[in-house]
């Protein structure tokens, strides 16, 4: 359903193919049409070398002699999915031993090779990208956190700052990036960043494809369940007093608890400036050729 989940599932499929665990057999991905999810649909078209894709319901599947059928629908509700690395879950469902797959094969590097054309956006040549929104409301940055991150980045360094959220302040070096229209534009947005600060795991997965340094925040999930194999990612865990690995807010109280995890006693956000200062020092590198 989401870009991030689809990317990790396809990365698992790429790893299984690279390890020759399919033994020459060609997989078929049967998908439910996702109207309005153009980036997800573009991702699957891009991944056609990994597997043939068909729409559900796939009538021919009734007569085709499949050796094995694997149902991964509604995986977020599978008890085996909670509390484990997402990539390992998908690998296991595909019949692989996750421990036998090298960490390098659990990264999203295949995507950078697959996207040959990138569509540049009207943005500065070098910038820091902030991604405050997430597919799930529980993971979205509170507005004061977003504002503090932008303020700190503009104070601590000289690069322009691009945000995917509505800028809560005005500065000539602050740029708003509206929704991208294609995967090629999204690839350009991510790969052109010098540093990404994100609570959206999809952007963190994409950043790994181009080894972009990333500062990722996790409220509802432990970082090792999502970014364990990403060497360029620094993950910050802000544990909320919620059920482990909760995917959806049950009520407004859950959202309030998730928001409170961002604040130390007294709603002090001073820790963010120190964290961002460390991240900026770590990316002191020349621009990519």
Helix residue percentage: 25-40%
Number of structural domains: 2
How much of the residues is beta strand, in percent?
Answer: 5-15%
Structural class: alpha/beta
Report the order of strands and helices.
HEHEHHEHEEHEHEEHH
Straight-line N-to-C gap: 35 Å
**Strand order within the widest sheet?**
5-4-3-6-7-8
Shape: globular
**CATH homology superfamily name of the largest domain:** Glycogen Phosphorylase B
**Mind telling me which CATH architecture of the largest domain this is?**
3-Layer(aba) Sandwich
**Under the CATH scheme, which class of the largest domain?**
Alpha Beta
Which key phrases capture this entry?
single chain, 289 residues, alpha/beta, Rossmann fold, 6-stranded parallel beta sheet, two-stranded parallel ribbon, 12% strand, globular
What layout of secondary structure does this protein have?
Layout: H1 3-18, E1 28-31, H2 38-46, E2 52-55, H3 86-93, H4 109-114, E3 127-131, H5 143-156, E4 161-163, E5 174-176, H6 183-191, E6 193-198, H7 201-209, E7 214-218, E8 233-237, H8 252-260, H9 270-282
Parallel strand pairs: 1-2, 3-4, 3-6, 4-5, 6-7, 7-8
Helix pairs in contact: 1-2, 1-3, 1-7, 5-9
